[in-house]
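stage 2 :: seqdesign
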C-alpha cells in the first residue's frame, strides 16, 4: 500500500476515502480511550483551516504549534497545511526565550496552543513577536489575551465549521511546497529551522511502506508517545499511519506507557533507545526478584534466542527447548507490549547491541533505523526478517548512501531537506553537490547495511592522539543495572572520566538493604554505595579497550532531563552543556584526589 498523492493533505484525503467513519485517532477521556473518526478529523481540520485564513494566515505563512501529543495536534497540523501555510512545531519543554526565538526566526503569523500552562509560557514570547496576529487555544482558561491578537477557542471554531469561508489548498499544494519547519534541538549549537517539503515527507513515508509491507500493513495500530514536534514522530508516528490508514492511540505520557501498551495493543511502535534500555532493566529486575525457576527459564530463553540469532540455527535439543520457551517466557514478555506487536522501530540515537539482542532473543521484532531531521528523517532501517541489530539496515528505497574518504555518511535523494530557513551558509555547508553531509561516521557492508560508528565532531581525541567513541563507552556504562545515565569526557586528556547518575530503583533498594538514607544527595556520598557503582564501572571497563576505560568518575544526585536542557527530546545527552555545567567537578577528576 502506497500513495501517489502530491501533498500530505491529499494523502490524508485518500485514506479518508477508504476509512470514512472508522476510528482514526484515540485519546483518554474519563479514564477510557475514545475515538475520533477519519470524517471528524476531516471536518474539524477544515474548520480550523478556514479560521486561520480568516485571520489573515496566507499560503506560505508559518503557524507555530505548541501542544503535547493529542488529537488536536494531528488536526492542527493538517489544518495548517490545508490553509496553505507551514507548520512549525515547538517543544512543550521550551522556555519563553526558546519560543520567542522560534516565533521571530520563523516570522510566524499565528500560533495554536493546547493547555493553559503552555499558554502562559507562550504568551510571554508572543509579546515579543510582532509578526504573530492570531492565536487559537485548544483549552480555555478564562484569561484574556492581549487585545492586539485575534483569538478563538478550539471548541468555538470546530462547532461552527461554516462561520468562515472554506479554504482548502489540498489540490494546489505540490511535492516542492513547504510542509513544515522542524527546529533541530541537537546536542549543540543554536536551533536551525529545517525546511521539509510535502515531497520530502511523502518520499520518506513511501520508503517506510516498502520496508514494512511484508508484515501486511493491514489495520495497523500505533501508540504515539515520542513528541510530535520531533521529525521522527511527525513522519513515522503521524504521517506514515495516515498514509496506510492506521489508527493512532495517544499515550498519557512516558510514565503511563506500560499501561497504555496494554490498552492500545499496538502493532507498530516507534521508540528511542533510552526507553528500550529502561524496559530491559525493568524486565530483568522483575525477573531477578522472582528468582527460582522463572528466572532460570528466562535466562535460558535469552541464551538460546541469542545463540539462534548469532549462529543462525540451533542443535536439535536446543531447538526443542527453544520452542518450549515460547509459551513459557516469550509470549508473556510479548503480552507486556500488547501481544500483537509486528515491529518495534528504534531510532533517534544508537541502540546498544546488548539491548537489541535482549529483545530479539525474547522474540520481539525490534528493528534499528537511522535518520536525521534534514532527511525527513528516516534514512535507513533494518527490514523485518533480515535484521542485523548491530547495523541500522540498508537505505530506504530511493535513497542513496555513500561513505566519504574521511568516513562521513553522505545521503542523496528526495528525502533531503530544502535547506535551513534563512541560513544559506549553513545549507551550503551540509548540502554539497546534492549530497547531505550528515556529520556521522560509518561504513557499508557487502550487503549494503549501514553501520554507524560515531559522530564526526563527537569523537574524543585523548592526549595520546587516540580516537575514542564516547557513545560506545556511555552505552556500555548504561547497560549496567546500577547506572541510569552516564556521560564521559577526556578530550586532550590522558584518560576518560565520567559523570554517572545511579539508577533510582537500584539506589532505593540499596539504601533500604543497608539502612542508609534514601535521599540521593546523601546516598551518593556513602562509600559503600560508591563501591557498588565502582563495581558496575569495572564490569563495563572489562568489555572495553584500555584507552576506552573510565578511570575516575563522580556521581550526580539527579537525572539529566529535557526540562533542565541536558537531554534532547529524543533523550540524547547534550554533552557540551553537561560539560559546561559540571566543569569544576570534571576538572577535579583529573586532580590528585580521585572522586
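stage 2 :: out
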Amino acid at each position: 500500500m502506497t500513495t501517489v498523492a502530491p501533498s500530505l493533505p491529499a494523502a490524508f484525503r485518500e485514506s479518508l476515502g477508504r476509512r470514512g467513519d472508522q476510528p482514526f485517532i484515540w485519546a483518554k477521556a474519563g479514564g477510557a480511550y475514545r475515538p475520533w473518526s477519519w470524517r471528524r478529523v476531516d471536518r474539524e481540520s477544515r474548520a480550523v483551516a478556514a479560521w486561520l485564513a480568516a485571520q489573515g494566515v496566507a499560503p506560505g505563512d508559518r503557524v507555530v504549534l505548541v501542544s503535547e501529543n493529542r488529537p488536536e495536534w494531528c488536526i492542527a497540523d493538517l489544518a495548517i497545511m490545508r490553509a496553505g501555510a507551514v507548520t512549525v512545531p515547538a517543544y512543550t519543554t521550551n522556555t519563553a526565550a526558546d519560543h520567542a526565538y522560534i516565533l521571530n526566526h520563523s516570522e510566524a503569523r499565528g500560533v495554536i496552543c493546547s493547555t493553559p500552562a503552555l499558554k502562559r509560557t507562550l504568551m510571554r514570547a508572543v509579546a515579543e513577536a510582532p509578526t504573530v496576529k492570531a492565536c487559537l487555544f485548544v483549552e480555555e482558561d478564562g484569561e484574556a489575551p492581549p487585545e492586539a491578537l485575534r483569538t478563538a477557542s478550539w471548541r468555538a471554531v470546530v462547532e461552527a465549521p461554516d462561520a468562515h469561508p472554506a479554504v482548502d489548498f489540498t489540490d494546489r499544494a505540490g511535492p516542492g511546497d513547504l510542509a513544515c519547519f522542524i527546529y533541530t534541538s541537537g546536542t549543540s549549537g543554536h536551533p536551525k529551522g529545517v525546511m521539509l517539503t510535502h515531497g520530502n515527507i511523502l518520499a520518506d513515508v513511501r520508503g517506510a511502506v516498502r520496508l514494512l509491507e511484508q508484515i501486511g500493513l493491514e489495520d495497523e495500530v500505533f501508540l504515539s508517545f515520542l513528541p510530535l514536534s520531533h521529525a521522527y514522530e511527525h513522519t513515522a508516528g503521524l504521517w506514515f499511519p495516515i498514509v496506510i490508514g492506521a489508527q493512532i492511540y495517544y499515550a498519557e505520557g512516558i510514565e503511563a506507557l506500560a499501561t497504555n501498551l496494554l490498552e492500545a495493543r499496538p502493532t507498530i511502535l516507534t521508540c528511542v533507545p533510552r526507553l528500550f534500555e529502561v524496559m530491559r532493566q525493568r524486565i530483568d529486575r522483575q525477573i531477578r526478584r522472582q528468582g527460582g525457576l522463572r528466572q532460570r527459564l528466562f535466562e535460558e530463553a535469552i541464551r538460546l534466542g541469542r545463540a539462534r540469532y548469532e549462529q543462525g540455527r540451533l542443535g536439535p535439543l536446543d531447538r526443542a527447548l527453544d520452542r518450549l520457551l515460547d509459551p513459557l517466557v516469550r509470549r508473556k514478555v510479548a503480552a507486556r507490549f500488547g501481544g500483537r506487536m509486528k515491529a518495534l522501530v528504534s531510532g533517534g540515537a544508537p541502540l546498544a547491541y546488548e539491548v537489541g539482542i535482549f529483545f530479539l532473543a525474547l522474540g520481539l521484532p525490534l528493528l534499528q533505523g537511522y535518520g536525521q531531521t534534514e532527511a525527513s528523517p528516516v534514512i535507513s532501517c533494518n527490514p523485518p526478517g533480515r535484521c542485523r541489530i548491530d547495523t541500522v539496515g540498508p537505505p530506504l528505497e530511493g535513497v542513496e548512501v555513500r561513505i566519504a574518504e574521511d568516513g562521513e555518511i553522505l545521503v542523496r535523494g528526495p528525502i533531503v531537506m530544502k535547506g535551513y530557513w534563512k541560513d544559506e551558509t549553513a545549507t551550503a555547508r551540509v548540502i554539497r553537490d546534492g549530497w547531505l553531509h550528515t556529520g556521522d561516521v560509518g561504513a557499508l557492508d557487502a550487503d549494503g547495511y549501514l553501520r554507524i560508528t560515531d559522530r564526526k565532531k563527537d569523537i574524543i581525541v585523548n592526549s595520546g592522539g587516540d580516537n575514542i567513541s564516547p557513545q560506545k563507552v556511555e552505552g556500555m556504562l548504561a547497560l549496567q543495572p546500577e547506572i541510569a545515565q552516564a556521560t564521559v569526557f577526556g578530550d586532550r586528556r590522558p584518560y576518560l572520566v565520567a559523570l554517572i547518575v545511579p539508577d533510582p530503583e537500584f539506589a532505593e533498594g540499596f539504601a533500604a538493604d543497608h539502612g542508609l538514607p534514601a535521599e540521593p544527595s546523601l546516598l551518593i556520598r556513602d562509600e559503600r554505595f560508591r563501591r557498588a557503582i565502582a563495581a558496575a564501572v569495572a564490569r563495563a571497563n572489562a568489555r572495553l579497550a584500555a584507552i576506552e576505560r573510565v578511570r575516575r568518575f563522580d556521581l550526580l544526585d539527579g537525572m539529566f532531563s529535557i526540562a533542565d536542557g541536558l537531554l534532547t527530546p529524543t533523550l540524547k545527552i547534550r554533552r557540551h552543556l553537561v560539560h559546561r555545567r559540571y566543569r569544576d567537578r570534571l576538572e577535579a577528576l583529573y586532580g590528585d584526589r580521585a572522586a
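stage 3 :: structure notes
- The chain has a mean pLDDT of 92.
- Residues 8-173+216-256 form a domain with the Rossmann fold fold (CATH 3.40.50.12780).
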